[in-house]
Amino acid sequence: MPRTIIGCDLSRACLDLHCLPNAASSQVSNHRDAVNAWVGSLEPEAFVVFEATSGCDGALIAALIDRGIAFSRVNPRQAREIARATGVLAKTDRVDARVLAQMGSVLELPITRPVNTTRLRLADFLRRRRQLVEMRKAEKLRLYSAGQDEIASQIEAMIDLLSRQIADLDRTIAGLIAEDRTLSFQARLLSAVPGIGPTVLATLLGELPELGTLDRRRIASLAGLAPHARESGTWRGARRIWGGRRKVREALYIAALTASRRVPSLIAMRDRMREKGKAPKTILIAVARQLLVILNAMLRNGAPLRA
C-alpha cells in the first residue's frame, strides 16, 4: 500500500490539507485541540510536508512529535519554485497544500529532527529579542527628528523601556541555556571560540539545532554560507551564496570579524585570500563558513577548538 503523504499549508486560522495518493483535500482549524485530533487520526507511517512558517506551526509540530509522525519543514522558496516548474502559477492555500504533497511524493525530503522544548522556547525568546531590537533602532532614528522636547522625552522613555526588556530577555535566554544539560555543554564549547558572544551563541543554539549533526557541506548550505556555481557554456560567473537561515548567517558574519583576527587557522585563511586579491566581504563570508565548519566539528566530536 502506498505511503500516505500529506501537504499542509499553514495559516494562523487553519491548516489546508492535501492527501496523496487519494488526492483528498480538507481543512482543519489551527487550534491545539483540533490539530491534536487530526494528527491522532493519521496512520503511523504518514508523512507530513509543510513550509517553515514562523509562528503558525507550533501546535502542529508538537502534535506530530507527540504522535511520532514523520514530517519535513521545507523552504517556502523551494516549494514555490517547484510549483512554477510544474506549471502551477496560481497561489492559494489549497494549491500550496497540493504542491507540498507532490513535493513529498517525488522528492527525497529530509525528515525534520524533533527539537526539544527548551530549544523551541529559546527560539521564541530570540525572535522576541530581535523584534525589540528593531523597535529600539526605529525609536533611536525617530529621536533625531522629534522636533519637540516633549516628544523627544517620550521617545527616550520608550528607548529605556525597550532596553530594559531586552536586558530581561538576555537574562532569560542565558538561564534557559544554563538549565539545559545539552545546551549548557554546547555553550561552554562554543563560547570559548573568539567571536562567539552571548547573542551569537544563543542564535546558533536556538536557530541551528542541526549544528553538530550534519556534514560540513550540508551545515554550510543550511546556514546560507555555501557558494553556488553560476556557469553556462564557456561562461563562468562568480560563485555566490543565497538562501539558508538569514539570522544564522548574519550572526556568523559578525562572529567572523573577531575570529579572523584571533583564530590562527582563520587568520592564515584570511591572509591567503588577501594575497590573491579577494574582496574584504568575500573573505569574511569565507571565514564565516570555515568558522561554522569548525563549530560543527566541535559539537560533533564534543571537543574544544583546535585551530
What would you note in describing this structure?
The protein is α/β, with parallel strands linked by helices. Helices cover 59% and strands 13% of the residues. It has twelve helices and seven strands. The strands form two sheets. It has a five-stranded mixed beta sheet with strand order 3-2-1-4-5. It has a two-stranded antiparallel ribbon with strand order 6-7. Helix 5 (117-143) crosses helix 8 (198-207) and helix 9 (216-222) packs across helix 12. The model has no long low-confidence stretch (mean pLDDT 89).
Low-confidence regions: none
Give the CA-CA distance, first to last residue. Answer: 52 Å
The helix/strand series, from N terminus to C terminus, equals EEEHEHEHHHHHHHEEHHH
**Secondary-structure content class:** alpha/beta
Largest sheet report? 5 strands, mixed
Mean pLDDT: 89
What percent strand?
5-15%
Please tally the β strands and state the result.
Answer: 7
Neighbour order of strands in the largest sheet: 3-2-1-4-5
What Rg, in angstroms, do the CA atoms define?
A: 22 Å
Helix fraction bin: 55-70%
Number of separate helices: 12
Shape: globular
